[in-house]
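User: Can you predict the 3D structure for this chain?
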Amino acid sequence: MNLEQARFNMIEQQIRPWDVLDAHVLHLLSVVRREDFVPPAYQALAFVDMEIPLPAGQCMLAPRVEARMLQDLGVQKHETVLEIGAGSGHMAALLAHRAHSVLTLEIDAGLAAMARTNLQRAGVHNAEVRHMDGSKGCIADAPFDVIVLSGSVAEVPTALLAQLRTGGRLGAIVGEAPVMRATIVTRAAEARFSSTQPWDTMAQRLLHFPEPSHFNF
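Assistant: Here is the predicted structure, written as structure tokens:
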């Protein structure tokens, strides 16, 4: 397998056509080695337009979803980022190249260890992995400039919005199958938020976030 050709094809055939046109993001995808964050059994699928299975029943988001979220959040070099759902550490690595620092929370101990190892091996030193339930965020380290949910939720979590700095952005995939939408929420002022839903996608659920009731009366 020609890894560099596969990487080029991923960027040109999957990511750029999905309106990811930020030159810095595209360059980042060419230098952060996605294959180093994929379990060995799935190496051949590292650049395929799909979610990659991870241990504990979790998965890596599809490449175009990670890339579009990274672009739309507009992470800057001075900003602090909170990620919910470290997975294999790939999104944290991308974020770390754009941000001042990244704190990524992972509920599964094995995945937290995997992400930590992958980030260290990739030479990423400004991303910290913590083994903890991220559904309530991390109040002790708040506020954050950017919060990223690397998975889907039924609704935007208010507990996490409260941990945004004024001017900060939260990115999440919100809704229920078969319709989920990327949602970018900006904290315009202490008690004022604005949101956009620029694209549709599907993603695996993050654990321990509230689900709506489906009882019929």
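The mean pLDDT is 96. The chain has one domain: 3-201.
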